[in-house]
Amino acid sequence: MAARVNVLLLASLAMLFAYALASDSSPLQDFCVADPMSTVMVNGLACKEPEKARANDFFFSGLNVAGNTSNAVGSRVTAVNVAQIPGLNTLGISLVRIDYAQWGINPPHTHPRATEILTVLEGSLEVGFVTSNPENRHITTVLKKGDVFVFPVGLVHYQRNVGLGNAVAIAGLNSQNPGVITIANAVFGANPEIDRDVLAKAFQLEKNVIAYEQSKF
């Protein structure tokens, strides 16, 4: 019996080590500045020759500038990821600034490749995320200036300005390219569009309501 337990333990450890080796590895050089002109297809972006790296490859200016929030949702996200800083390639980190008009929202969305940690610089934000099926538990709170909140990777989350004026937040994400899937845009603005019968059954709505929502996106 003891021998069988030892064999099972060793097998389990082997599986864990195999999983660890299969996950993303750490960079194997000082940096890998993205080369957007490269035709090499990799999981990320190909590196340009290290000796061609310059300070501008690691630099971004303008995060002090407020985003234009005069849109339907009343918020603006200014992203600083590998598209803005080529030197972020392979480093697994990025940053965003989010500006909110009064009662503006950052609509429910997910980041398929990153956990997000957000801190409020100005104003007051209601924030929340929803756990996975079948619980779908809504975890929410109100943040004030200096408060920090974490949105776990892949979970639907949002923010809403509940203060008296504009609000500003900064968020870090543990991916050079975290991606974003805004739920309403993805569902009602898909191209080509999702069949209305599918959406009507999923949302328990009439097809004419679905058609109206699709027309908005």
TrEMBL record:
It holds the Pfam family Cupin_1. Coiled coil: none annotated. Disulfide bonds join C32-C47. Oxalate binds at N106, H111, E116. Its main location: secreted. Residues 61-211 form the Cupin type-1 domain. GO terms for molecular function: manganese ion binding. Mn(2+) binds at H109, H111, E116, H157. InterPro entries: Cupin_1, Germin, Germin_Mn-BS, RmlC-like_jellyroll, RmlC_Cupin_sf. CDD domains: cupin_OxOx. Keywords: Apoplast, Disulfide bond, Glycoprotein, Manganese, Metal-binding, Secreted, Signal. It is found in: Secreted, Extracellular space, Apoplast. Residues 1-22 form the signal peptide. GO terms for cellular component: apoplast. PANTHER family: GERMIN-LIKE PROTEIN SUBFAMILY 3 MEMBER 3. Belongs to the germin family. May play a role in plant defense. Probably has no oxalate oxidase activity even if the active site is conserved. This is Germin-like protein. It comes from Tripterygium wilfordii (Thunder God vine).
